[in-house]
Amino acid sequence: MSKILEDRTEEIENGEILKSDEKSLRAKEFINILTDMILNYSQLTNQAKKQLNF
Description:
The chain is mainly α. The protein is built from 2 helices and no strands.
């Protein structure tokens, strides 16, 4: 296991990105965007409730 980790660390240090890494980064970006959208929606609905006195 440590040999694999060493090889992987060396690949990263040399700027080599695996497709699985790229997919993982895209998935993380997508989750961050969805989280931001949900937070914005929640804030807007809370503001609307306050304005409508719900």
